[in-house]
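Hallway conversation turned thread

IA: we were arguing at lunch whether anyone had actually written out GDSL esterase/lipase end to end. Turns out nobody had. So, for the record, here is the sequence (363 residues) and right after it the structure tokens. Reply here if something looks off.
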Amino acid sequence: MAARRLLVAFLALCSGFSAVHGQKFNAIFSFGDSMSDTGNLCVNGPPTGLTLTQPPYGETFFGRATCRCSDGRLVVDFLAEKFGLPLLKPSKQGGANFKQGANMAIIGATTMDSGFFQSLGIAGKIWNNGPLNTQIQWFQQLMPSICGSRQACKSYLSKSLFVLGEFGGNDYNAQLFGGYSPEQASRQSGTIVDAIGRGVEQLIRLGATHVVVPGVLPVGCFPIYLTLYRTSNAGDYDRHGCLRRFNALSARHNALLQRKVSGLRGRYPGARIMYADFYAHVYDMVRRPASYGFSANLRACCGAGGGKYNYQNGARCGMPGAHACSNPSSSLSWDGIHLTEAAYRKIADGWVSGAYCHPPISA
């Protein structure tokens, strides 16, 4: 009997069509930025000076740098594993079979196209490799090889999981690093959220019926922001050590996005549009790190900067002299900008179970 159970489990895993709490998907299709990119930026060789292609990136799971911005796997990797699917190949990987999933996400991606940043006078502050519209075009180019005719795609994609983002982080980074205050940047939140909403609608028109729409993270708790915008005014920080103004920007974006998702649910009752709450989950990790097995919540695991947050732009993870902490799984932040594999695993768990995804992916 034990041998038979083992055989059944093995066959389910090999089929690439497994289930979590009864939920099955043909494939997973991912869009986004450095929180999700599994290699698109590096398929033609890593860009010169890109530190994340150097050790110790990737050391925890892959044993080498894979162009992922972490010490190991990302949320989308864990989602694929949970649903019995292979890790998503980058969509720019020529000759790959994408029937069980493809990842359009690319490091530096924004929601908005270049014209938006030009209109704000900050076009030079963004590394815009593939904004949301472009990523959806990449997906459309793959569709014939994935599912064939338009009608066949409608059926196939209706049984696939789409993860749209997060988007928005780099749209705000461009403004903040370009001299805008958080309050000034928040004036663009409605425009950015509207563009995300249009992206959701495009995917639904292509056949998607299961779409996860993540919000942005509490960037005021990230070592890069805590270092670059450090102040001597205690009132600028909340009781957990995060910068209030920057988290307020993230919170405004997320409130507008949740309202947008609610409206889209009413407009497309046949689709299951899920809001994934990156903010609440990561903030809870900052607030109660020990509950998640973390001993460090505001300090980067990897870097050579030292100081309170172990972050310096000129001594980032992957640069000469930088090194990782002895146990990355005890840290929330990997490199001051992105999270550790341990954090991404917990986030994926929250999305699947529904603790931080509404409704849960597994419903």
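OS: looked through it. The mean pLDDT is 93.
IA: good, adding that to the notes. The CA atoms of residues 349 and 355 lie 8 Å apart.
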